[in-house]
Model the fold of this input.
Amino acid sequence: MNAMVNEVSTDLSDAVSKHIPFHIACDFLKAAQKPVGRSWKDVLARNMNAADFLTDLLTEVICFSRKSVFAYEAKNKGATLDLSRLASMAYVPTPITQSKNHKLFNKNENARFSAYNFLCTKRANETYILKESDLTPDARTKHWTPDSVIKLNSRIVVTLINSIVYDSENKLLFVLVDDLRYSLEENSFDIQAQFCAELIALIPDLTQWRLLDFFPSINGIYSKQTEGLVHRLGFECITGVTRDERLKPGQLDLREEKYHTEGKAAIGGDIQPFKVGVTWQKDKFTTLKSEVELEINGNRQALHKQGGVFKATLTSVGTFGEACFAMQRLGLYV
Amino acid sequence: MSDLERGLVLIRRIGKVIDQDSDIALVLRALLDKYGPHLVPQIPAYELERLVKSMGIDVKTTWKKLIDFLCFDIELFSLEFRLIDELDNEHYISYEELQHILAGRHLVIDTRTYSATAAKGQIFPFLVPTKKWKWLVIGYKKVVNA
Done:
């Protein structure tokens, strides 16, 4: 492990400022009617006595932001999933020793969703650029020149937090995989498959469930005008052109952007989207404390198969409430 | 002969080969309405499939007849197969290569090797318009506007 980069910060305020972007932290502090300020230093000084709030916020942010999202549905429609075995399981203490298997450590619940968070350790690759101060004085005089660039590739052990979120209303099981923060050796599908294989031991009914295809929701989200702001769209036109249009997230809506609408009109309005990114703003949806971004990145193969997009990506930083919101919206279109 | 005359001859010939009210004639007319205004370099098969489905025609029973008619009887389109990779690039696949894949052999594109099953999942048919299609569009425009 590269101790220089991956040291675990013991100081709460340090950890908070490392994991949460400043403007998003302010969103949550405002929502909880806590004082905010212009800089981290300012904000942390004013919230000295809110350690419990910050700890909870940090835990939720780590568990529910920047994840790959998979969903499962029952093969016979309407079947419910029995999670009682998970509910009675004991939690492991958070700073656990390394474990290749998933260990339950935390649980979140609201009226509709119940989430179980699991820890597991994986190997990741890390590139570290050596600084002058990292060397001993002896080595510095022998090997170092001011323009030296030395990259160290190392394999480090990281802790992933994978969760399952059960939607009791839509009868969907969402699996959140934490693969975006590190460059792992396995991809998200591998981790998801391993996680679910372990879950089957706890929830035997899961063998009767199958992965849900997000393809219909790509066109569904794009064609519903009121569904957040579209900040990214990949599509194929009838003229045989493929385009990938992006906007600054959270400000403009691609559906109403001039280049997009007029280009669409020029070819008769017929486009086939296969990739969509959507932002839900906090001022439009009152249940949100901060904005939520979700992307479904299919490719052109999905158009030909009319399906085959099994992964969505929650790219924003937020708490349990925000993640639930994204899944609830996603559930409307699948 | 000008392109217009060629187009009108083609329309007369199609009229003799197929019935005016048959499913295939309906699909052809819909194709001309949709793709007539723009010259299209290719039509993915899924677009044709959607078109047929949207007209309420059963795809399974009509598909083979339709492709036979469009691509081999009057040769409005040539049927091409292309492999779409993860980066959305298209690679042309010849009939010979296709035969090899169907026989279970692997396929090499650039420096990447695809197993037969992987290749089958990523190869899709496209209809590429020939010059006959262009003539037909010109003739059709004339007939509709007259």
About this structure: The longest strand of chain B covers residues 77-84. The CA atoms of residues 84 and 90 of chain B lie 5 Å apart.
